Amino acid sequence: MAEIIFRAEIKKRKIKYVDAASAGIFAENSTAISPQSAACLRQMGLDYSKFKPRQLKHKMIESAFLVVCMTEKQKELLNGSGNVRSVREIAGFDIPDPYGYGDEAYRLTAQLLCAAVDAIIREYFSPAGSGQTLCPVG
User: In Å, how far are 41, 48, 51, 84, 135 from 45, measured between CA atoms?
Assistant: First the structure.
């Protein structure tokens, strides 16, 4: 959901030359987004049809401008890379993984992702931090 929400926000705010690619540290081998994530993104009116889950590779970290981990624990696992930050460092909270929980956990995760994406864009990609977040999930 993070990648889709981030891409929608940078497009909405007309921020060019910025893109996102999400990858899981412990991602399962899957070719599709989870049904609960898909439902949240549909509710937000976001297209996820081209999304493919992928495993994080060291090369991805090295070539990225910024790697944002959802939790401090994830950041600790990637220790040693200067471009790795956590959502907690940027937005003040962790984003727990909703996998294995119900629809409400996915809705809460989507809300947290919207707030985190807004904070990331304001800190790294928006000159004045202008624009409103798209977060209609509730």
Answer: 6, 10, 15, 30, 10
The overall pTM is greater than 0.85: yes
> Model confidence over 58-74: pLDDT tens digits?
898 889 999 999 999 99
Do 55 and 24 meet the contact criterion of CB atoms below 8 Å apart? yes
Would you give the distance in Å from CA 21 to the centre of its chain? 9
105 confidence band (pLDDT: 50, 70, 90): very high
Q: Which of 19, 42, 9 is nearest to 118 (CA)?
A: 9
Using CA atoms, how far apart are residues 44 and 40, in angstroms rounded to an integer?
6
From the list 3, 118, 4, the residue with the least C-alpha distance to 56 is: 3
pLDDT at 20 over 70: yes
Determine the CATH number of domain 2-124: 3.40.50.2300
